């Protein structure tokens, strides 16, 4: 509920496909690869779209609590829509910065799998959320994930003797298992 929700999601998913393809193509070119290479490396047409809905109710002591603790996203990319309540922060140069709410804007996170594929050229963004004393915050991230059995590692074209692979190659499902169970990758 509401009953229109399923239809709205269908339309949103369709629109996101175009955004995802464009992002992956530009990020691919940014690595010196062909437009289609990065999309293929994260699973091509098998790329999974995982929608999560975050609900952060008002909190009487926002100074003592976080919405989600600091983390990086496991996926290749996350595309997030928040409501108007400020709360997302990202870590850079030893500081937490508020991610300003911009109406109708999408927030794009580089996730772990893109850091791995690019052998560290693209960095997975460390982020967290705060909570609000009076207002409910919500967000709708869609995680673009490789299919579970696909093995992800630094792309051979992006490594060399001078730039050896910095990450292990492993199936996405194994990566997720280790991360969720806090087992070193
Ligand atoms: C997440 C996340 C941020 C937000 O769900 O992984 O980081 O703004 N959410 O809710
Ligand atoms: Ni996140």
TrEMBL record:
It comes from the Eukaryota. Residues 46-146 form the Fe2OG dioxygenase domain. It holds the Pfam family 2OG-FeII_Oxy. This is Flavonol synthase. It comes from Vitis vinifera (Grape). PROSITE patterns: FE2OG_OXY. InterPro entries: IPNS-like_FE2OG_OXY, IPNS-like_sf, Iron_ascorbate_oxido_reductase, Oxoglu/Fe-dep_dioxygenase_dom.
């Amino acid at each position: 509920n509401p009953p229109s929700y399923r239809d709205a999601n269908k339309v949103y998913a369709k629109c996101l496909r175009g955004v995802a393809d464009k992002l992956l193509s530009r990020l691919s070119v940014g690595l010196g690869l062909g437009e289609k290479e990065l999309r293929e490396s994260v699973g091509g047409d098998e790329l999974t779209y995982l929608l999560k809905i975050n609900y952060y109710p008002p909190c009487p002591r926002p100074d003592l609590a976080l919405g989600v603790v600091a983390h990086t996203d496991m996926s290749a990319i996350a595309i997030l829509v928040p409501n108007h309540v400020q709360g997302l922060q990202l870590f850079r140069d030893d500081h937490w910065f508020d991610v300003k709410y911009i109406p109708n804007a999408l927030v794009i996170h580089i996730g772990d799998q893109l850091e791995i594929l690019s052998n560290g050229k693209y960095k997975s963004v460390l982020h967290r959320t705060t909570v609000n004393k009076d207002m409910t915050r919500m967000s709708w991230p869609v995680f673009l994930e490789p299919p579970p059995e696909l093995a992800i590692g630094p792309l051979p074209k992006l490594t060399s003797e001078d730039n050896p692979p910095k990450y292990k190659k492993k199936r996405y499902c194994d990566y997720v298992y280790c991360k969720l169970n806090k087992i070193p990758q």
